[in-house]
Amino acid sequence: MNKLDSNNNITIRAAAAEDLNVIMELLRPFMKEQQLLSRSREDVAQLLPSGFVALAAEAIVGFATIEIYSNKLAEIQCLAVCESCQGRGIGKFLIAACIEVAKQQSVLEVMAISASDQFLKQCGFDYSLPGRKRALFYNTQT
After folding, report:
1. d(Cα 13, Cα 41) in Å, to the nearest integer?
2. Which site from 8, 21, 86, 138 is most exposed, i.e. has the minimal number of CB atoms within 10 Å?
3. 137 in helix, strand or coil?
4. In sequence order, what DSSP letters do the residues of 69-123 get, joined into one string?
5. pLDDT per residue over 9-42, tens digit each?
6. Which domains are present in the chain?
7. CA 58, CA 70: separation in Å to the nearest integer?
8. 98-125: per-residue pLDDT in tens?
9. What is the pTM of this model?
């Protein structure tokens, strides 16, 4: 899948194994600041087959992946855009690529967990599930 935004000179393509080192460098500051869940190199490598990279001037400037749990639920994970490229719509393009995968596989709902809920709302996400249901989480580490 190659998508091009000619206004911003951004290309979205499927992530490849050879992208792993650059993706890890991209994710590292976000994990350090706890904006993303900390993941090992092996964890990210396992996510690559369902991931997408954003390219600007042929350099990787963004990454996102979608993990499909069932035909009912998928999750967008590891959404990151390098700080110097934020505000150009790259995150929205990455989310759109992930959602397209979910639609192609007839997944009912896609969730995203983020500290940036305004951004996700702009992408069509909402807190409510059908029937006024809400997602609740229990932290087993406390």
Report:
1. 20
2. 138
3. coil
4. -SSSEEEEEEEEE-GGGTTSSHHHHHHHHHHHHHHHTT-SEEEE--S-HHHHHHT
5. 889 999 999 999 999 999 999 999 988 989 999 9
6. 2-132 (3.40.630.30)
7. 34
8. 999 999 999 998 998 877 778 888 888 8
9. 0.85
